[in-house]
Amino acid sequence: MVPHRLTPQAFAVKFVHCLYWFDLVRLSVEVTVPAPVRRAIDTQLVSLGDVAAPRLERWIAYRSSQR
Questions:
Q1: What is the dihedral of CA 35, 37, 43, 45, to 10 degrees?
Q2: Lesser CB count within 10 Å: N end or C end of the chain?
């Protein structure tokens, strides 16, 4: 619901905290997501900081080895 273009931005920003970290990472680089929503996603990623960092590194390594 967050990345959908017809979802009002106010609702999309409020739903960002419900997303898992891998969804946050995927949506943070998509250009189709409006800028205010991407900023909310980036803020959520920063707040997850120490929790998501080791998982994020493994996920990036996994995704890059598939290509």
A1: -110
A2: C
**Distance between CA 57 and CA 54 in Å, rounded?**
5
pLDDT tens-digit readout, 15-64: 999 988 888 888 888 888 999 999 999 888 888 776 667 777 777 777 77
- Dist. CA 54–CA 34, nearest whole Å: 28
DSSP 2-66: -S-TTS-HHHHHHHGGGS-HHHHHHHHT-TTS-HHHHHHHHHHHHHHHHHHHHHHHHHHHHHHHH
Are 33 and 3 in contact by the 8 Å Cβ rule? The answer is yes
